Amino acid sequence: MPKDLFENVCEEKLFSELFKKHAKELHDFIYYKYGEHIHPKDKVQEAFIKLWDNCKKISLQKARSFLFTVVNNLSLNQIKHNKVKLKFQQIEHKDKTNENPEFILEEKEYLQKYQKALSKLTEPQRVAFLLNRAEGKKHKEIAELLGISRKAVEKRIYGALEKLRKEIEGI
């Protein structure tokens, strides 16, 4: 009797029914657990490919469990792979540079001065300045975001620039 069950999973009609029954459930499981960046649709497809490749080894009763285990493991492997890629990208940027050591040291010193000068700004000036310079928002957008007039935004940014010029020479 168990032999019949193993053969059934390999039948295209039954396999198609398994796909229709569990594909959305698997997709939602991965999407809710790990998010869209894992590409849940791809993971579901890969899980069903593994089920098809192993159809003679997996009984009909264990197919759902097998699919969930495979799709979860594929997602965890993707996360590990993404972490390795990210770590490698960070290392690569730190190790390979065309600048000379003197320039790198000056850049670090300048960044420290800049951070210190930013910390000395008032909070409203710092927020308006960073929204404008770091995020590239226009004065009108900042005014709407902060609920103030466009003139107030301009005044805050102008004040921040004046203070930064005083704190950091060469701006």
Mean pLDDT across residues: 84
Strand tally, please?
0
Q: H/E series, N to C? A: HHHHHHHH
Give the overall silhouette.
elongated
Description of the structure:
The protein is 79% helix and 0% strand. Mean pLDDT is 84; it is low at 1-6. It is built from 8 helices and no strands. With 171 residues, it is an all-alpha fold. Helix 5 packs across helix 8, helix 6 packs across helix 8 and helix 7 crosses helix 8. It has helices at 2-9, 12-34, 40-53, 63-95, 101-120, 123-133, 139-146, 150-167.
Core attributes:
79% helix; mainly alpha; disordered N terminus; 171 residues; elongated
How would the blueprint of this fold be written?
Elements: H1 2-9, H2 12-34, H3 40-53, H4 63-95, H5 101-120, H6 123-133, H7 139-146, H8 150-167
Helix pairs in contact: 2-3, 2-4, 3-4, 5-8, 6-8, 7-8
